[in-house]
Write a structure and sequence with these properties.
7-stranded antiparallel beta sheet, about 30% helix, 12 strands
């Protein structure tokens, strides 16, 4: 009787193990099948696939796509800039995504219609390079305008960690926050490999047909 009861308990334990393993394996299989789909460069629309380009042709196509796909977004008390996303090729020839090759997006702005000692106040906004669900856009980097305007205007760095983290660096600040800002450059940066893609203000204006402005108010 003792042996029979022990075998019965072992049998139940084994069945519970198999059941738990089956559920865990199912979740793992579902996740592993789902994950790569959302990061598969082949899922990017063909017109945004630059994996067949190299050199100057690739650089020009990347810059044009980033800026032509840009949008200024207002969300609650925050202001964001969204950029165009694309697929490209690594040096090895393997297809990859822009936000897999570049980890950071850095915007540089200068205050419009204002200068202190002949120098315009400048603002640098840095956030992570992350693509949207359809992979045709780089997710917007949001400036928490209400929180920025609540800060005392001064040169320095401000870090905001709620939601999507963003770092803001300002220089040449007057006694009051400027509210009109001209985009003077966009950088996609890969610090680990010490490379970046830089788009200056002239290129922004040429691609858009106008300068890009953002307004705090």
């Amino acid at each position: 009787m003792i042996i029979g009861g022990l075998l019965k308990k072992l049998g139940m334990t084994f069945l519970l193990f198999l059941s738990s393993w089956g559920v865990g394996y199912g979740i793992m299989l579902h996740t592993s099948n789902w994950g790569p789909i959302n990061r598969d460069p082949a899922a990017v629309r063909q017109i945004y696939d630059f994996s067949n380009l190299s050199g100057t042709d690739l650089t020009d196509a990347m810059k044009k796509r980033i800026i032509s796909g840009s949008t200024v977004i207002r969300k609650n008390q925050s202001l964001g800039v969204e950029l165009g996303h694309f697929a490209m090729a690594k040096i090895t020839g393997e297809k990859t995504l822009a936000c897999q090759e570049f980890q950071k997006v850095i915007f540089r702005f200068e205050a419009e219609g204002m200068a202190i000692g002949g120098e315009r106040p400048a603002m640098e906004v840095e956030g992570a390079c992350e693509f949207s669900e359809d992979m045709t856009k780089i997710s917007p980097i949001f400036i928490p305008v209400d929180k920025v305007l609540a800060e005392k205007p001064a040169d320095g760095e401000f870090q905001y960690r709620e939601g999507k983290p963003v770092t803001i660096r300002v220089h040449g600040m007057p006694s009051e926050w400027p509210t009109r800002w001209l985009l003077t450059s966009v950088r996609l940066s890969n610090s680990s490999e010490q490379r970046e893609l830089l788009i200056n203000s002239d290129e922004v204006s040429e691609i858009l047909g106008r300068p890009m402005m953002v307004y705090f108010k």
